[in-house]
Amino acid sequence: MLLIAASATLHFTRPVIPPATRAASLAGPSRSRRGGCEMVTVAASLDATEAALSSIRAAPAESSAPAPHEPLASAPWRHAFSTLVSHRAFVSDGFGEVAFKLEEHWEFAVGAFTMEDVARDVTLLPPQFVASGMRHQGGVYNQPFAAGFSFADVDTRMDSATVVMLNAGFLVPKLASISLAMLEATGLPIWLNVYLSKPGLATSTQLHTDAQDVVLVQCTGRKRWRVYRPPPPGKTPSLDPFARGKGTDHMEFVEEDLLIDTVMEPGQVLYIPAGYPHTTDTLLEPVEDEVASQPSVHLTVGVDSHIWSLSYAHLRQHALTRAGQPAALSDGAPVSALPLPQWLRLHAPLPFGFLSARHLAAGGG
Question: What CA–CA distance (Å, rounded) separates 364 from 122?
């Protein structure tokens, strides 16, 4: 798996799926197009080292044989997620700290969930779980659908906005096995959303941050993603770094903080840590192929570490509170005053599988 994310500069030209992989840390990529390809130049940014990440190699995720009685459709997802979260470099230098794009192509994800599936399953969700962004009184908010909505209503709203199926992994049978595969691989609380965007949207989602570490898997169509380095929390101490760009909080684009600028194709995978600003659109250069006419359908599989206070920052705060000590730094400054690299390290999620350690120990595993 290539992580477009590490310490050396590299050029990544798509389409290319080499057997060996390498990773590079992100800083400010330049972006150009040549024919049907896209070139992304990625330069150094975070503390992850080339030595740590260069060991990553492509793993044929779809080749894993299913376990006995395991539905064949879920086997490649189980293997792909477990391969990603068990890789030493990702665990030590990637999870919660570095945004990257895999060069490995998840062929099994192409067409795994389509608009035909949406038409069949979207009304399985309660109306408050199906929504699109809307501008209201100077802010950006989710507008849920009304009771009794239909797929035709969803299709109509997609003419002008991205529609999200929130928590679909809990309610749509076809997606439940994918959610379970991620849950078993990480041993952490997870959720799965589905995002639907027709071609031609100048802004699919505004620049914002989220509280989840997410793996984005493109199933159909194309979507452009831009991911940025988080702004120093000390600049806006009254705002939640994991919920920026929502409501009336408008984030500004800082081009020198651009880390990734890429168009996702079916079968491609992008990882974005919690707190990293990102924005999307489907206003792409014309490409005459079958994919160009398809709406973009992608799965966002999130790890809910921060929602459940499963980070080192929360552990520190809890321990100090129990000891009757203030949560401020030793000099009295708030934690938000830390330089960005130290702040990110402190707010890193707890390790994969740590919740399972007690059960493994009890069972002698």
Answer: 43
